[in-house]
Structure formats: structure tokens, C-alpha cells
Design brief:
Blueprint (H helix, E strand, L loop, with lengths): L5 H14 L4 E5 L2 H12 L3 E8 L7 E7 L12 E3 L8 E2 L13 E6 L2 E4 H7 L3 E7 L1
Antiparallel strand pairs: 1-3, 2-3, 4-8, 5-8, 6-7, 6-8
């Protein structure tokens, strides 16, 4: 059954996988999920992101997200929250972007220039839809 919030499902899968100390999360591919995953990787919350085609059906693609842990085995992500939901979209201008945990966390935004972190959005001077917060 298709989900009404695939990005929310992705974030829940990441959070649950960290709780169970998994090394990898596999999920169906979409450009939005891939964009969020690449931002999380560039900000240091994921080890790697790979897109893999299904062997039996090459048109079906999957994302493999490799989770990152510190040297003691604790997860790098303390918490991850969905901000904008399908029933209630939240938008923010560049001047009203809040800093998460005094700059230790990151917000992921969908902007007219693509999916990016709040740091990059401030640099590019663009606002957009707040997808999630990570710290």
C-alpha cells in the first residue's frame, strides 16, 4: 500500500535502524528521498548513500543508506523530526530560519534550487519548505 508521507516513513526507518544498531537501511528510491539522504550524508549524519537497481526489474530502484556511529558505538543522530507534513506544509524565508541546537543540528529544506541544508540555504539566500530537523 502506498504511503501518504514517504519522507516521513524514511525518517522513521532511519530512527528505528539507529535504535536497533543496524548498519544499513534499504528503501525504495525517489528523488526527494535521495536529496534528503544526500544532505544528511554531506552534513555527517550518514556514512554513505547508494542507489541500486533491482536485478529482476531494472526500472525499480532502491536507496541504501549506510548509518554512521561514533567510536563508542553510539548513533550520530540524537533525534530526527519531520517538520512539514502532507496535511500541514511549513515554509520559511531565509531570514527566519532558526538555528537548531545553536548550530549543532541541521534543518533540511526543499528550495527552488534543490534540497539543501539550512546552512547552505543561508549561503545561497533562499528559503523554502522545511522537511526535517536533525540533531
Amino acid at each position: 500500500m502506498p504511503s501518504s508521507d514517504p519522507v516521513g516513513d524514511m525518517l522513521a526507518m532511519i530512527k528505528n535502524a539507529y535504535g536497533r544498531r543496524h548498519k544499513r537501511v534499504s528503501l525504495t528510491h525517489s528523488r526527494m528521498k535521495e536529496g534528503v539522504a544526500k544532505v544528511l550524508r554531506s552534513e555527517g549524519y550518514l556514512e554513505d548513500v547508494k542507489m541500486v537497481a533491482d536485478e529482476k526489474k531494472p526500472e525499480r530502484k532502491y536507496l541504501h543508506l549506510y548509518l554512521k556511529y561514533d567510536n563508542v558505538g553510539a548513533s550520530v543522530i540524537s533525534d530526527i523530526k519531520r517538520v512539514s507534513k502532507p496535511g500541514c506544509r511549513i515554509f520559511s524565508g531565509v531570514d527566519s530560519l532558526a538555528r537548531i541546537m545553536d548550530g549543532l543540528g541541521v534543518q533540511v529544506l526543499s528550495t527552488s534550487k534543490g534540497i539543501m541544508s539550512d546552512r547552505q540555504a543561508r549561503k545561497e539566500r533562499v528559503g523554502g519548505e522545511l522537511i526535517c530537523k536533525v540533531w
